[in-house]
Predict the structure.
Amino acid sequence: MQRVKGIPGKKCGAIILTAEELSNCRDIATMQLCANKLDKKDFFGKSDPFLVFYRSNEDGTFTICHKTEVVKNTLNPVWQPFTIPVRALCNGDYDRTVKVDVYDWDRDGSHDFIGEFTTSYRELSRGQSQFNVYEVLNPKKKGKKKKYINSGTVSVVLSLSSCQLCHNFDLAKLRLANGNPSQPTSLHYMNPYQMNTYAMALKAVGEIIQDYDSDKLFPAYGFGAKLPPDGKISHAFPLNSDTENPNCVGIEGVLEAYFQSLRTVQLYGPTNFAPVINQVARSAADVTDGSQYFVLLMITDGVISDMVQTKEAVVNAASLPMSVIIVGVGPAEFDAMEELDGDEVRVSFRGRIAERDIVQFVPFRDYIDRSGNQVLSMARLAKDVLAEIPDQLLSYMKSRGIEPRPALETTPTPARYMRI
């Protein structure tokens, strides 16, 4: 204990320092929790719940080690996955008590206490099960109400340790790299000052593609998310939330729908490519007379959970008026994406070889200009990513014997572009 020195003759209090030897545990925990039937705390709404995790210390006190984000106006929240060093959570002692408080967020900072429960990292690491459901208890309410049972329950949805991440890389990678868009660690981070890499790639390529579309209407889909209001998992959902009309007006409309979607859906694995490829292929199969040609732009961190199904989808799509552009973002290895790009070896599925090479892949990181000239970087990306489209279009037309339409004998007008 060190006494604070100040004005002579007056007590200025004391600062007490406590210390504990840190373990050499290097494990990283990834967890996701949800709650059910929490107490209603807001007069005009439900509750805005969040969790606070506390590490127990050797002297019996507790120290805050993590807070989740606030989920607005719900009694059944699902919080985003988060990562935390096991050393910070329990100093490497898997059986040490971990206390969790549940609060209702208030704008003025006077958050309302809903209840609490205790557990341990060993229990949390067991993941989703009937034994990882905790009653949220409020001691004051329990003392006042004889019929009080609890203030809701909290359940573990996901729990991975660092060693488990090695075996569940596809699922964990999606959540860690593309997790909460409000966190700077996410590739989807909604930075108020600049676009994230997904938006940059979409804008660079999309602004070139849109010049070849007469109506500037683009159906835009996301893959790998839980959708409101029931948390249904989808691998091909319209970014604008309109299942009847997924079209967005121009690339600016696509960007607007993308950012709005980040605020409403919960990013979720696994990462399946085949559903969205098949979605576009169904549209292409309806127009095989050469009047339209479809280009699917996929922006991804490289993780893929359905490689076999995706190869089948690409082989099937190769006989349709369709091309697939894949832009890889983030620091991951893109071996799977390189395999789908049939420049060297044509994609095959169960002995069937793709009729044409329709996939073009580029890693976004190769186009970040070292001088900081973002405009130049985007121009280089767009140029290379679209380089194969003309030959792919011509290869389809020639294979089907489709001749160019004769020019109309009227007053010369700007050339009409085929819809892409």
